[in-house]
Design a protein that fits this description.
This protein is an all-beta fold and 206 residues long. It has 2 domains: 31-102, no CATH class; 115-205, Alpha-Beta Complex (Outer Surface Protein A, domain 3), CATH 3.90.930. Helix content is 0%, strand content 60%. It contains no helices and 19 strands. It has strands spanning 3-8, 32-38, 44-51, 59-64, 70-77, 80-81, 83-88, 94-101, 104-112, 118-125, 128-129, 131-136, 142-149, 152-153, 155-160, 166-173, 176-185, 188-196, 199-202. It has a 19-stranded antiparallel sheet that branches. Strand 9 and strand 10 (118-125) form a beta hairpin. The radius of gyration is 23 Å and the shape is elongated. It starts with a strand and ends with a strand.
Length: 206
């Protein structure tokens, strides 16, 4: 169970100056209230600021694990996520970072393994996937690349084996397989097929 209480700032606070550089951009002075919630043992579970007299979040909101370690730092502006949101595990290791603009994902979103290596990387524009989405294994080997345009797979999707060698690739157009499909062994093409509108039309016995 969490306990909640309010602390009213008596003075004006410049939001964007507190806690971290990932906060929303600086703006004019604004009166803020601070909200804290605690675990049963009294440790802080959350602390964030809101525009005075409202529930509209402003500035960096922090959440903590029961052991006191920082769990999430989330920058807000006018009640919407705006900046880089970061989440951490109970040991303080960064597990995810994601850019936001006016409440929508914007820019890079990266997920990390416990060992600190990247697990995935995606790029968003106005909340929609755009660019190449990449996935790695825990050893740091690239395993998959998927290109997106306006939320749809568009371009050549590539899959790699645990040694980093290409295994397969296939072309997509607007979310559908359309074009050549290749399978590789030790970097050499061992199978070539063809798709049209998501249906295999050539060398389909695989």
């Amino acid at each position: 169970m969490e306990k909640r209480f309010f602390t009213i700032f008596a003075a004006f606070v410049m939001f964007g100056t507190a806690i971290t550089a990932s906060a929303a951009p600086k703006s004019a002075a604004m009166a803020l209230d601070t909200v804290r919630t605690t675990y049963d043992d009294g440790r802080v579970s959350r602390i964030y600021t809101v525009q005075k007299g409202t529930d509209v979040r402003e500035g960096v909101a922090l959440s903590f694990h029961p052991n006191g370690k920082l769990a999430v730092e989330a920058p807000y502006r006018n009640g919407k996520l705006d900046g880089v949101l970061r989440s951490y595990d109970e040991n303080g290791k960064l597990r995810e970072s994601a850019g936001y603009l006016d409440g929508e994902e914007e820019g890079l979103s990266i997920v990390y393994f416990e060992n600190g290596k990247k697990k995935s990387r995606e790029t968003y524009r106005r909340g929609v996937l755009n660019g190449v989405s990449e996935t790695w294994d825990e050893k740091g080997k690239l395993r998959r690349q998927i290109p997106y345009v306006n939320g749809q797979i568009h371009g050549v999707v590539k899959f790699y084996d645990e040694m980093g060698n290409i295994q397969e690739d296939v072309r997509f157009e607007r979310g559908l397989r359309h074009g050549k499909f290749h399978r590789y062994t030790f970097g050499k093409v061992t199978l070539e097929a063809e798709f049209q509108n998501n249906r295999c039309v050539k060398n389909c016995n695989f």
